[in-house]
From TrEMBL, chains A, B:
Pathway membership: Cofactor biosynthesis; NAD(+) biosynthesis; nicotinate D-ribonucleotide from nicotinate: step 1/1
Cofactor: Mg(2+); Mn(2+)
SUPFAM superfamilies assigned: Nicotinate/Quinolinate PRTase C-terminal domain-like, Nicotinate/Quinolinate PRTase N-terminal domain-like
Gene3D superfamilies membership: nicotinate phosphoribosyltransferase
Assigned protein family: Belongs to the NAPRTase family.
Keywords associated with the record: Glycosyltransferase, Ligase, Magnesium, Manganese, Metal-binding, Phosphoprotein, Pyridine nucleotide biosynthesis, Transferase
Taxonomic path: Eukaryota, Metazoa, Ecdysozoa, Arthropoda, Hexapoda
Broadest EC class assigned to this enzyme: ligase
A GO term for molecular function: glycosyltransferase activity
UniProt function note: Catalyzes the first step in the biosynthesis of NAD from nicotinic acid, the ATP-dependent synthesis of beta-nicotinate D-ribonucleotide from nicotinate and 5-phospho-D-ribose 1-phosphate. Helps prevent cellular oxidative stress via its role in NAD biosynthesis.
UniProt name for this protein: Nicotinate phosphoribosyltransferase
Keyword Ligase: yes
InterPro entries assigned: N/Namide_PRibTrfase, NAPRTase_N, Nic_PRibTrfase-Fam, Nic_PRibTrfase_pncB, Nicotinate_pribotase-like_C
Nicotinate phosphoribosyltransferase N-terminal domain location: 23-150
Organism: Schizaphis graminum
Amino acid sequence: MSVDESNNVKTRLQVHNCVVQPLLTDLYQITMAYAYWKSEKTSDTAVFDLFFRQNPFQGEFTIFGGLEECLRFLENFSYSDSDIEYLKTALPPTIEQSFFGYLKELTAKDVKLYAIDEGSVVFPRVPLIRVEGPLIVVQLLETTLLTLVNFSSLMATNAARYRMAAGDNVSLLEFGLRRAQGPDGGLSASKYAYIGGFDGTSNLLAGKMFNIPVKGTHAHAYITSFSNPSELKTKTLINLNNGKEQDLIDLTLSWRTTLSNLLHISESQASDGELAALVSFAIAFPEGFVALIDTYDVNKSGILNFCAVALALNDLGYKAIGVRIDSGDLAYLSNKSRETFIKVANEYNIPWFANLTIIASNDINEETIWSLNDQKHSIDCFGIGTHLVTCQRQPALGCVYKLVEVNGTPRIKLSQDGSKITMPGKKDAFRLYGADGINIQDSIFL
Amino acid sequence: MSVDESNNVKTRLQVHNCVVQPLLTDLYQITMAYAYWKSEKTSDTAVFDLFFRQNPFQGEFTIFGGLEECLRFLENFSYSDSDIEYLKTALPPTIEQSFFGYLKELTAKDVKLYAIDEGSVVFPRVPLIRVEGPLIVVQLLETTLLTLVNFSSLMATNAARYRMAAGDNVSLLEFGLRRAQGPDGGLSASKYAYIGGFDGTSNLLAGKMFNIPVKGTHAHAYITSFSNPSELKTKTLINLNNGKEQDLIDLTLSWRTTLSNLLHISESQASDGELAALVSFAIAFPEGFVALIDTYDVNKSGILNFCAVALALNDLGYKAIGVRIDSGDLAYLSNKSRETFIKVANEYNIPWFANLTIIASNDINEETIWSLNDQKHSIDCFGIGTHLVTCQRQPALGCVYKLVEVNGTPRIKLSQDGSKITMPGKKDAFRLYGADGINIQDSIFL
């Protein structure tokens, strides 16, 4: 269903993504269902454990994500008529036709799902989800549950690692939609980055669907689309101090000349197209002015043009928010920008100018943040894309879904690879806490 | 829209995935649109190039994917009422309300899109897509077009590399849904792996939506859910030679004893649960019997049980298809299996038995295939999951969308990083072919 339609659906748990449906699975789940059905195993019951064997990113923890989507999936589990028609073509013609009638009636109403809370820190081999119910149905759920948990948990874990690297005083924004693994890869990334500790996303649909704060400024294309202040058709802004319209271009140009001397930056090297773009953006967003300052040269153009616009806005009663730097040596450029802001703040006695927000983007990964920390930087906010949303260091989590009991009897999968041998039997997992409220260990009991 | 609903939609190009919609974009596209609108740039025109700077996987080529989805997106580009309502909350309250009326009317009808054919081999810096039209609209398309092209092209390229490694005589199946980056990551992977040269997928929804051949057998859980042949309620199969029902268990057990001597495999070490599972699966799929043979031990159990069932099926007039091996030393186990098949074929004069299909899976990547080639193997088909669908070696392609012209005037983005400087101006790309029909080079002309 579309996002619009889903708002009107009356079921308690709604499916966010139209492709999350019973056919989002491997064919072999259906062939197994048929073989079980043919073997008259429709009343057999089974227990499956969903768990992973190793923390991702060579790390020491994982954040469990995807549970809500699993519950939505179970709540809505039912094959549509067109699913059944398709399955008739996908399976061999020797299949008994009454099997399709059986499939059509299947729901997950007899399935019990036990799970750790979504967003919890979890560890290898402890079942994140235990699924009990009719053997055929719980087997049919396997692939979709794994799809929903694997990337969600990986993403939340990755985000949490970025948060640990950045510390609590830096804002983290997810900017990765364009590099994500497909449209929904991007949406999932936005959602689970937020669960993992990010502050917002650039992804509007994620904002609409999941109520995540959405942030953004402008692209280099916006800056390069302007050539000169003379081309601006809208030049004025209301002065909040007196309610009168005032020419923001003149004011900005005047400030640029003044600042050029203070900051020892040649006005002739600063881009007039960039100035025009920033003025036009300030007229559009006078209350929330954030400027991309690296289109031409941060030190020779961007910082001068930004400060000129910000001071002009200040004259009219508006506080600029800050700058974004999307290339170059981010430690150096952020420190240089901070120095400039402090200098301007002191020179004109505008204390808040010293604390303007500095946002850094450009292919940032966990190591970049640790390295910037070592170098000392003045960045208040990271916009993080590719490495975050594709989990570049390890793009898949290996959750598995293993049969541990059939009709009350434990089951095991042996393997020549010892790590792949399953723990048979229905288990409960407990987390033990010390008197100080800190958890000591997870224990599994049969 | 849902898959079902999309079948009923009358538009020529339909959106496959409900999340591909104008809000699947970065907020800054909308803030830029407002700033352009506020600057009275609604009649400005622009040209953007969509291209990448480097082939993925340290390779020498890229396969272009995603064009069809881009066209669908353009065809359907329109903000819904609820999109507009959401945008009113996502943008600052100072936004002039008439901007939302302007947005509501926007379509991509004045946009021209030039592109290289989908599925083509493409190279760095040559525009894959050139988009011309109203500045505001073509800017608004950026993120979604990049999202649709980046992963599609990466995936098709990755698949093509697996095809080159495997050669033309080996079948390649995509098995990665459960490890993909979200539900749609899995769907995109199935689709673009097929475009890149795979033969099929395990993903049923991909089969239904894109008409891709779907393949699959059963999981280890199917095997471990059986304990003993005595538990089988359905034991018989029709003998195609005489039309009579015959007990497949008895026949299989008898063959197992016979084969045990021929193959020097102790019957007592072979799993009876595995035998029961394989017999039940053969009864369900007598015409398409493929068996997973590594649940317990390929050499001590799986191969013996499989051959016993396959020979029993043969007695009743059915030809088994083959085996899947999902763990262990795939070169050794496949060669050992092939030797066994040849031995059985010769012993009982069943020539086709020597050519039974051997499918290998288990965390296979491009290097595994090259290494198996070096070791010599007997694998006919690879089932490939995680590494293929998440493009583990490089999980993102870096396509960019750069402004190259505004109102007929070329535009450039400078950068301290020389590789990031754009080529200004509207360009045409030509591929030059030699007399032998082989392409010599791509050329770009202004």
